[in-house]
Amino acid sequence: MSGQLLPSSLSLNNYLEVFQKVPLLTYLLNSFVTSAIVMIGQLLVSSLAAFAFVFMKFKGRDFVFFLFISTMMIPWEATMVPNFMTIQSLGWTNSYLGLTIPFFALAFGTFLLRQHFKTIPQELYEASQVAGISRLRFFWNVILPVSRSSLITLGIYSFLTNWNMYLWPLLVTNTESARTVQIGLKQLQTQEIASDWGIVMAGVVIVILPTLLLLFAGQKKLQKGLTQGAIK
Amino acid sequence: MKRLLAGLSVLFVLFLTACSSTDSASGTTEDGKTEIIFWHAMGGELEASVNAIVDEYNSSQDKYTVKPVYQGSYEESLTKLNTVAGTADAPAVTQIFEAGTKQMIDSGNIQPVQKFIDEENYDTSQWEENISSYYQVDGEQYSMPFNSSTPVLAYNKDAFEEAGLDPEQAPRTYSELKEAAEKLTIKEGDKTSQYGLSILNYGWFFEELLATQGGMFVDNENGREGEATKASFNDEKGQKVFELISDMYEEGTFYNSGQNWDDMRASFQTGTMAMMLDSSAGIKGLVDNADFEVGVAYLPHPDDVDPQGVIIGGASLWMAKDIEENQQQAAWDFMKYLSTAEVQAKWHVESGYFAINPAAYEEDIVKQEWEKYPQLKVTVDQLHDTVPSTATQGALISIFPEARQQIVTGMESLYQGEDPKAALDKAAAEVDTVLEKGSRSR
Amino acid sequence: MNDARDLQPVPSQKSLPKRNLFAFLEGWLYLLPSIILFGVFVFYPMFRTIYLSFFLADQMGPFEFVGLENYQYILSSDSFQSSVKATILFVLYTVPAGILLALFLALLTNEKIKGIGIFRTLFSSTMGMSVAASSVIWMFMYNPSIGVFSRIAEWLGFPAIQWLQDPDYALLAVSLSTVWMNAGFAYLIILGGLQNIDTHLYENAKVAGVSYLYQLRRITLPMLSPTLFFIVTVSFINAFQTFGQIDILTKGGPVESTNVIVYSIYKDAFINNDVGSASAQAVILFFCVLLLTALQFKLGERKVHYQ
């Protein structure tokens, strides 16, 4: 972290060297695929749960909802090692399964969507019941489209969160072919010896770029969704 | 949007079912070679060096294949090792930092390399004794030293000259150090533009400054003669170290550079301070990056003691116990290869870590390197001049990481005006409690 | 279902027990994926953590049952007390400031003005940066010799402060960077909530000629309350779990001034190899946050205005 951190030293050479030092292309691909899978998984699982919490009345609903919320309060340090052992016994190490499935259920996402669903008039639901539309159709054809903005927000959030994950992928992968970008960034740094910060910074830029692009694209979509999606 | 979602969902179910690859951790490859996994924590340039050495080993013989895998920081790879120990995911060889030595011995998951030394009558006298002794307990060699370093005093020769000091004569005693620091400190009004000295808030440096006085970190001869039960670093010797820091900080000649190596080096390179303690392994990078002449000298010591030298730091390679015999043979063969003079010379030149085999220093590439970086020779000389004892062998405790955190907290409290003895006693009391708890380990 | 029934008014659920059962089952069916996943990957590890908290344990597992000793040890240690203090301060520094900042920025950019998209993107962009990358940037800015903060201080004639090395400032410095890192996401959520408000309400208000503040108090905030309730709850919970920036910026120092409970858990579990102590701390933290959140739901959600 000396003065060389300044952009003046970000020569093209550093970027080329990053790709030679670590298999960054593989890592980028893995990060992209796992982040996309987690994003879709979270959107599906969370929106289903949120739908049940808002539009269905059944015994124990509020208690279960609070149980869901409580999962956010469990420190990750406590869950990481047992979960790693679970993944290991399932034989899911070094695979996308281990990198994605544990994150599909997301209380945060369920909560976010529940809050949005709650602003949708109940009359809409009652009308659909009267018209004899099945709940699943109602969910898929009515609720999801009007909640577009929340879904996009959640989608961005889950993609980015997964993209930035470090410790979990490090635990569940042992081969370079299964590893993700944040491990690559760490791999460019040394502990006791001065790191080559020019190269590290080039790596950081390469890794951040896709997330910023996604954010901007999402923003654009969001602007459109925000103005069209609201139901009056 | 909906269609996109539906399409992606299908795609992702396909992905999940298609991508459960199986990759056995270690075993036999199809060409009949025994394959072993080697976990290490060497990132950046060092990983390139490690990979090159492993590649050369793999092509140097046709019985074994070593697969190096980066596993994050020392702490992260140790955690992962503890979690997978005894399962098929466990590696045959793992690089573990020096502070994890006792923990590894106690874990019951490792095979001391002494077994192979005895079986083959392998000549360990070719190893640098001051390095290998760290990993010896009761005469048994547990692991194979790999990357080793010691602390040195690095200083800005240009600043020395400007301050009217002899740039070839670095301070050795505490009074010389204080005097030089005073001359080097440049104050402009109430602002200090250049400080004399900086020591990173890192427990390792304290241990070293203690050991060079012959001081013990814990009782029972640093835990080498028996299980350590109490901290002993809060004696007079330890106090001298804390007093030095406290006095110099109060006089305004000492700069607090925090806990981050890179931060400290950046401050040194930008001229915030003219002297600092650094790791021998970092010297080459320091010389390359500084736009002034960098001098390297031995660790300073109090005026009235004979300097005893330094304790080795860094990491060593450990062999797993619960693996097949041929894999252990492979691991041992790889370790032997690593300790040859040729490989060690290359490792020393590329990484800046010591050669564990001193014969490496006679190799041509080392001689050339030393001509370019005479500073490196100083680091090696300091190691050779070290007087072997339980003080310089280093403490053997399982709770080392926590003990170091307590020392850091103590150092940090000095800058808040805490009394050196009180700060040290508090750290010692904490370490005593942890030692007591640690003694109940498995 | 036949057409004739569709024309009838919606039957009350009580009168149809069969339908009730079906709704009950269907409700659970929608929750099933979440419940299974939470069960395996959250509740099972949590129960294991509770179990381990009664043992002396290292990373290889438990080895001696000690009852409540881990808890006694923690509750009587100075270190834990300073962790509690740091955690509470950190939450107080970051949560209100973060939400107010995000709310302010969202209100500011909720207007339909040309080019507002640029600001919206700008304000939400901190979300696109990982905690690790942002922390490195902040570390650079806090650096006393080359950082921007000391340059400004110098320019104003103040002495350069070692933000991260001074126990009086370190927690504030970490909090400031945290507010910055979290602002992007909170902003995005609040903006979404604002945009979701029926514009007719504002048009009516305009006709009635009410002041901006009245409009804010009577229309915007009540209509935004589901979103605000969400962001307050989530920010609270997240603030208790903040780890990344502390690890990179201060490592819990100096003099343990930023050693929040989650960081202390991390150190015990992943560095000090004391899983028993880490588990006990995790259990304590969990139940404290649970209690706070339950209170928040009890008191807060009553005030939330859903449609």
Automatic annotation (TrEMBL), chain B:
It holds the Pfam family SBP_bac_8. InterPro entries: Bact_solute-bd_prot1, SBP. The keyword Signal applies. Keywords: Signal, Transport. Its main location: other. Coiled coil: none annotated. The keyword Signal applies. Residues 1-25 form the signal peptide. GO terms for cellular component: cell envelope. SUPFAM superfamilies: Periplasmic binding protein-like II. It is found in: Cell envelope. Belongs to the bacterial solute-binding protein 1 family. This is Carbohydrate ABC transporter substrate-binding protein, CUT1 family. The lineage of its organism: Bacteria, Bacillati, Bacillota, Bacilli, Bacillales.
Automatic annotation (TrEMBL), chain C:
Residues 84-296 form the ABC transmembrane type-1 domain. Belongs to the binding-protein-dependent transport system permease family. GO terms for biological process: transmembrane transport. This is Sn-glycerol 3-phosphate transport system permease protein. The chain crosses the membrane at residues 21-44, 86-109, 121-141, 169-190, 221-240, 278-297. SUPFAM superfamilies: MetI-like. GO terms for cellular component: plasma membrane. Its main location: membrane. PANTHER family: ABC TRANSPORTER PERMEASE PROTEIN, INNER MEMBRANE ABC TRANSPORTER PERMEASE PROTEIN YCJO. It is found in: Cell membrane. Keywords: Cell membrane, Membrane, Transmembrane, Transmembrane helix, Transport. It is a multi-pass membrane protein. InterPro entries: ABC_transporter_permease, MetI-like, MetI-like_sf.
